[in-house]
C-alpha cells in the first residue's frame, strides 16, 4: 500500500485522483471521511450520499463515513468554510491494493479584523510612534504610542503654522496635511474610528511661553456625512477649562461641522467659519470659546483679534493664539495620566502615560 504523508491544506476543498487498478477481478474504490460534522459535504458538486453510515470514533468527537467512488478525479468540498475534516482514499482488486491519506483539511483561517484604531495596534504590541493603517477600507493614521501615547489616534496637530487651515468642506471632510506634521485627519476618518467603539478625546495645548494645559472629554464621537459630522462631546476634565462641552457657556456638543463653503451653524446668516479666519469647526451659537483650526498667529498675544487665532478661551482668553495643539482620541477605558511638559524642539506628541485599569487606579 502506498501512503501519502499527512499534510495540512488550508482550504475546505480537496481534489484527488484514484489509482488506475490493472489487476483482474472486482475493483473497489472507497472514500472515507473523518469529520466532526456529518453533513454539508459535496462530492463532485453533488451532496454526499445521505445513506452513508457515520460511525463515531470513541472519545474523539469525530465520526467516519465511507462511500464507493469511481476511477477518476474527484473533488470533495464542505459547504461550511470552517469545517475541519480528513479523508482516506483506498482501492483494491484481487491482486492490488492502495490507499493514501489526504491529510487534515483545515479551513482558511479567517483574516483577523483590521485594527480599528491605534489602540488596537497598541494592544497587538506596537510601541513606536508612526503611521499605521487602520480599518477596512484601510486608511492611514498617526499613532501616538511610546512612551506615553498608549495607542492614541491623532486627529489634529498644529505646531508651526506651516499648514493653512483656511479650507473648504472637501478638505475638512477628507483630511489634509502630513500625518507626521501639521494635519487634520478628516471628518470621514474620524467618524469611522469613533463609530467602531466608544471613544474619548484628549486636547493638549501649549502657549508661547512653553506652558501647557489639557482638556479631556470622556464622551466623544463624530456622526456620519448625513449628519454633517455632528459632534457628541461630554464629561470634561482637565486644567484648560471647558471651552466645548455642554456644561460650558458655548456648547459644541450636538453641533454640525461648518466650513466657509458649507454653513451648518446656528447663527442666522452669520457663518462662523468665514468670520473666524476660515477654519472649519463645530461652531455653537455665538461661535463658541474654542476654534483650534483658526488662523495661526504669532506676534499679537494677548491682544489678537478675538475672531482670529488658534483659541481656547477658557485657558488663555479670546485674544491669545496658541502655539501648539494636539487632538488625540482613544477608546473609553484606556485610562491615561496627562503630563504637562512638552518638548519645544519636537512635534507635540506623546504626553500621556497609559494605565490600563480601573479609573480609581489613576493618580496625578
- Main beta-sheet annotation: 9 strands, antiparallel
The CA-CA distance between the termini, in Å, is 74 Å
Q: What's the CATH architecture name of the largest domain?
A: Alpha-Beta Complex
Secondary-structure-derived class: mainly beta
Pfam family, one: Fibrinogen_C
Domain Fibrinogen C-terminal: 109-333
Protein name: Fibrinogen C domain-containing protein 1-B-like
Organism: Branchiostoma floridae
Describe what you observe in this structure.
With 364 residues, this protein is mainly β. The protein contains five helices and 23 strands. Helices cover 8% and strands 34% of the residues. Strands 11, 12, 13, 14, 15, 16, 17, 18 and 21 form a nine-stranded antiparallel beta sheet that branches. A six-stranded mixed beta sheet has the order 1-10-9-3-7-6, with no helix packed on it. Strands 2-8-4-5 form a four-stranded antiparallel beta sheet, with no helix packed on it. It has two domains: 9-106; 118-361, Gamma Fibrinogen, chain A, domain 1 (Gamma Fibrinogen, Chain A, domain 1), CATH 3.90.215.10. Residues 1-11 and 337-364 have low confidence and may be disordered. A hairpin with a 7-residue loop joins strand 12 (139-144) and strand 13 (152-158).
How does the SSE layout of this entry go?
Layout (H helix, E strand, L loop, with lengths): L8 E2 L2 E5 L10 E8 L5 E3 L2 E2 L7 E2 L6 E6 L4 E6 L6 E8 L4 E10 L11 H6 L6 E5 L4 E6 L7 E7 L10 H6 L1 E2 L5 E2 L2 H10 L2 E8 L5 E11 L8 E8 L33 H4 L14 E2 L19 E2 H4 L7 E8 L2 E5 L13 E5 L8
Parallel strand pairs: 1-10
Antiparallel strand pairs: 2-8, 3-7, 3-9, 4-5, 4-8, 6-7, 9-10, 11-12, 12-13, 13-15, 13-21, 14-15, 16-17, 16-21, 17-18, 19-20, 22-23
Amino acid at each position: 500500500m502506498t501512503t501519502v504523508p499527512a499534510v495540512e491544506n488550508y482550504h475546505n476543498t480537496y481534489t484527488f485522483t484514484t489509482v488506475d487498478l490493472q489487476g483482474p477481478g472486482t475493483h473497489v474504490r472507497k472514500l472515507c471521511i473523518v469529520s466532526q460534522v456529518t453533513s454539508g459535504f459535496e462530492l463532485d458538486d453533488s451532496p454526499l450520499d445521505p445513506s452513508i453510515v457515520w460511525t463515531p470514533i470513541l472519545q474523539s468527537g469525530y465520526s467516519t463515513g465511507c462511500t464507493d467512488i469511481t476511477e477518476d478525479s474527484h473533488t470533495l468540498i464542505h459547504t461550511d468554510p470552517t469545517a475541519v475534516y480528513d479523508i482516506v482514499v483506498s482501492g483494491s482488486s484481487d491482486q492490488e491494493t492502495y490507499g493514501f491519506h489526504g491529510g487534515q483539511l483545515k479551513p482558511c483561517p479567517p483574516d483577523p479584523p483590521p485594527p480599528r484604531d491605534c489602540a488596537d495596534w497598541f494592544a497587538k504590541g506596537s510601541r513606536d510612534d508612526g503611521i499605521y493603517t487602520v480599518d477596512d477600507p484601510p486608511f492611514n493614521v498617526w499613532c501616538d504610542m511610546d512612551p506615553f501615547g498608549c495607542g492614541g489616534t491623532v486627529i489634529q496637530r498644529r505646531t508651526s503654522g506651516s499648514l493653512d487651515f483656511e479650507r473648504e468642506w472637501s478638505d475638512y471632510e477628507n483630511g489634509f496635511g502630513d500625518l507626521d506634521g501639521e494635519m487634520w485627519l478628516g471628518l470621514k476618518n474620524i467618524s469611522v474610528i469613533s463609530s467602531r467603539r466608544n471613544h474619548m478625546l484628549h486636547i493638549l495645548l501649549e502657549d508661547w511661553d512653553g506652558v501647557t494645559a489639557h482638556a479631556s472629554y470622556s464622551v466623544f464621537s463624530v456622526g456620519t456625512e448625513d449628519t454633517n459630522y455632528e459632534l457628541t462631546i461630554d464629561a470634561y476634565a482637565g486644567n484648560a477649562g471647558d471651552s466645548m462641552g455642554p456644561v460650558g457657556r458655548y456648547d459644541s456638543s450636538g453641533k454640525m461641522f461648518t466650513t466657509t463653503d458649507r454653513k451648518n451653524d446656528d447663527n442666522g446668516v452669520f457663518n462662523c467659519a468665514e468670520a473666524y479666519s476660515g477654519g472649519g469647526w463645530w461652531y455653537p451659537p455665538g461661535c463658541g470659546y474654542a476654534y483650534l483650526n483658526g488662523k495661526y498667529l504669532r506676534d499679537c498675544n494677548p491682544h489678537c483679534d478675538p475672531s482670529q487665532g488658534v483659541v481656547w478661551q477658557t485657558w488663555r482668553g479670546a485674544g491669545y493664539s496658541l502655539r501648539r495643539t494636539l487632538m488625540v482620541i482613544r477608546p473609553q477605558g484606556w485610562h491615561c495620566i496627562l503630563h504637562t511638559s512638552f518638548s519645544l524642539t519636537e512635534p507635540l506628541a506623546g504626553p500621556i502615560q497609559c494605565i490600563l485599569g480601573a479609573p480609581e487606579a489613576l493618580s496625578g
